[in-house]
Design a protein that fits this description.
The complex is a heterodimer. By secondary structure, chain A is mostly helical. Helices cover 72% and strands 1% of the residues of chain A. Classes of the chains: A mainly alpha, B alpha/beta.
Chain lengths: 689, 348
Amino acid sequence: MEVVLTAVDAAFWELLQPERMMFLLFGVCIGLVIGILPGMSGIAGMALLLPFTYSMDPITAIAFLLGMSSVNTTSDVMTAILFGVPGHASAQATVLEGYPMARRGEAGRALSVSYTAAMLGGLFGALILGIALPLLRPVMLYIGSPELLAASLFGISMVAALSGSAPLRGLVAAGLGITFAMVGADPQTGTLRWTMDTLYLWDGLPLLPVALGLFALPELCDLAISRSAVSKVPNLDIKAGMVQGVRDTFRHWFLCIRCGGIGAAIGAVPGLGGAVIGWIAYAHALRSEKDAYKTFGKGDVRGLIASESANNAKDGGGLIPTIAFGVPGGASMAILLGAFLIHGLVPGPEMLERNLDVTYTMVWSVAIANIIGAAICFAFSGFFAKVTMLRYTLIIPVIIVIVYVGAFQASRDWGDLYTLFLFGVLGWVMKQLRWPRPPLILGFVLGDIIERYMFISVGRYDLNWLFHPIVAVLLLMSLFSFVRPLRQNIKAAGGVVKMFTGFRKPKFEKADIFPIGLFILFVVLFAQTVNWEFGAKVVPLFVGAIVIPALAFSLLNQVCRRHPPVQTEPQHDAAEESKEEVSELLHMDVASDHGELSMREVIRRAGIYGFWLLLLMALIGVVGFVPAAPLFVIAYMRGERREPWLLSIAMGLAMGVFLYLVFDQVLNVVWPPTLLGEWFPSLAFLPSV
Amino acid sequence: MNIGTIRRSLTVFSLTALAAAFVACPASAQDDAVADFYDGQVVEMYIGFSVGGGYDTYGRIVARHIGKYIPGNPTVVPVNMEGAGSLKLANWLYNAAPKDGLSMGVISRGVPFEPLIGNREAARFDASKFTWIGSTTDEVSVCAAYTRTGIDQFEDLYSQELIVGGTGSGADADVFPKIIEGVLGAQFRLVSGYPGGNDIEFAMERGEVDGRCGWSWSSIVATKQRLLDEGTIQILLQLALRKHPDLPDVPLVMDLAKTDEEREILQLIFVRCVLGRPFLAPPGIPPERAAALRAAFDATMKDPDFLREAATMRLEITPISGNEVQELVAEVFQTPNEIVERTRALLR
């Protein structure tokens, strides 16, 4: 014990040297910028910075890299809260609570809650890392593929919580997510599943365009429909909101710690990936916090606290397997591992004995980076929060371009843009029709992990893995989380018999087109699996066997339980209505609220928005990404609201220069080929043509 | 020797010198042309994988150093074009990339043989027509087992099954055990689907699998030397066309073939180890630029700064020249059809 404390102490003073602190600060600044830019991940940042660390001593190099990677998830809340754009996979759950807060004028408070929670989570993650490091090595050897499988299944069971009042819809959405996750070359047999003869889909659908499509494009669309600023409150007192936010977070300190623990634990398990952490913490808060079902999804600070504290605790957790076993807890940890080797640090027992002080400088780096990161974010937030008061015509074109560029970073292929657009349409339709989107993304993220570890578990242990103790506990917990809402459902329906009877004559509405379309999609997709090898089709077929009946039943409920227009006795109607009210309360997603606009007008405006999206894609195809950005911004600003020419051109040019400098010059992005470049090869000197 | 002879020899000598000068002149003019072309240009080094992996590391380090050896000293920038295990990049370099010598790349060592033994519809190239620039490493891969299994030499695998981890269809750690089992009759139980090599190593450590067949020797030395020293793992077999100097006593897979047919199948599979980290350019680029790129690659491999940096990163550098890679690939594509078909059947 004393050895450890000496190391902790020595490590702190080692790190406190001015040069090291300077690089840590520098890393934090880069990390914050990377966090703000959608699509730019800490992984790319690490790879870019790695060569600069060769000449540094190990402690400085690691402080620099960890400073950068620890704070990505502190600043990435900005786009999520201010515009509903989850710039990184981890910020998805943040959108659900943060954006509604920004819309009702609480952007400052939401940002402040996020930073504080992120900082506390990050500190807690570092604390866990510091305490657990010497103890955890033996424990981690108990976590094998069956345990990972069970943990992922437990994650999927959170769908039940995230579906609110519509468990069947949630189940269908999760099934849809898993199905999308199955796209690509399957790891067992190499069968190309639903790749539509494109190489793009070989590696599966990338997460970022899917997430941006599902969450960002629909929010922007509704902003375009409402034609208002993000914040519906014209003059906000941002300072007061920020003070309030800090207070909020400290009032919910216990939630912060619980979710920090979840984040660190999931981060510490290699193979689960960071994308689910926010959701699992969010689902945990939803279940454990008082009356959460009534206010979550409408801008509840507790949802924000949960997702942000967990996200920042992840890095501390991710370092545990990296240091103790040389098994990176995530992609950015893999690069950090490379940095270890460059500096002669070999992960494993040595890091816990001889190099213990180096190891503890990592703990301190994570902790200090989180504090500095939050402080810097606080300093600039007043400015950023004001953006929510700007006219929609100043916000939307810029954010659309950034979303496109962000999505395009996933695989730098046209496919990313198609994926973004198609999932944007899907996300908007789901949002309008009140189908929960979180289960879809959860299924998508966990789908291939589950498939992977199921094959490994069965291939290695046949069915004996089911009896591993940790597996059994996790599976029982998942079962429980499915059974509880099911029981409530049966109770609400008045017993199992009533659930399956009492259907009326079918009565169709326009909104039924969506589930019917889904039904056809599922049938078509699963029909295609017939000729696949067994290993490639077993999971998809299993999903199909659950989802298709669930969808059919949900559709039956919807179509055959609509209250008949006039003839029923009024009493019954009232009961029905109150039931509907309850289900509104439990809807687990950002709901669309178009106020007094008629349906017709909503669809017309959505159509205009869709036109703009397609126009941008067309421009990118013809003149290339960089020139398309200013053209699009100018066209949108002039076309939507006749903004002054000068302002439009200035905004457009600024956008173009930004893309050119950051993505073309610094990041060397490969741009897609353009028609202009094909017609006039001499124009190839222009960026991205 | 009379004067006549001397005079004749002198004439011959001067003529030779003159001829040499003539030959040399266009050559240096060509050099100038190449230098003029590359001067102030940007050469893009495409990497067929995402940021952070082994191919990316090699791609980036070569990109950092090769510029100074290409005539005209162009700027070389690394660009990631990931997809389908670098098959996307191979297709792109073959079919779409400009054939001017400004694009080069690094792809997976298995991808060139995809048209033979992989997905023939998806691989839209003839690998022997690429302009091969060279490879940084003549890799030796091994089969290793944890000694807790009681397996400590290759012969044991004829009587006892070894549980090995794999990373998915088509990857080395999956292909190699299948071929060794199919050709040599050793017994493996392949548990596949791990996200990456690190995950297999972790699975071995916790006893989920007991070995890995298709593990690069250089990476064992870099990260798992401890396990070797403690006798926790044992190297059973080396997988390459030639033995690694570190491993004189470990049998080489090629030596275990009993018939010519077996040898040809093994050659078809294990030639990829020689290819290591293959760098290439599109087919049909101007020959003088191809020559310049190859020469630059060879010079980079000897550059002290490059070697120092590779050593700090613990990257093995055992270069193979572009011409050698070109010949090897061409040779493999001469493999008789029935051998190719038999190999395909074994991989299924």
